[in-house]
Amino acid sequence: QVQLVESGGGLVQAGGSLRLSCAASGRTFSRYAMGWFRQAPGKERDVVAAISSSGLTRYYADSAKGRFTISRDNAKNTVILQLNSLKPEDTAVYYCAARYSSTWSLSKYEYDYWGQGTQVTVSS
What we know:
The protein is mostly beta strands. Helices cover 0% and strands 48% of the residues.
């Protein structure tokens, strides 16, 4: 069992930055690939970025490339999503998810555990 708790969301002006953190419980965090997803009102929950269990490979959605950075610290059971150059269209609830695998997936259905989400609002 893994429990995930996100933090770091908030209200920011366009062009600003936020740092989202996801703290995981349990002693097997290093066996889980991690993903960050987001869901805007009336839209599907889509992957933003993902990272392998070792941290060696990463994926970014086209909307995130060049602006967002995903990282993890297996010693601290933490995964970070750094959001830079934020745009109003980045406004959404951001979710952290864990998948019991060394490799990430783009499908939300292949993740085993989810956090409660953190709201990111970008004003124009």
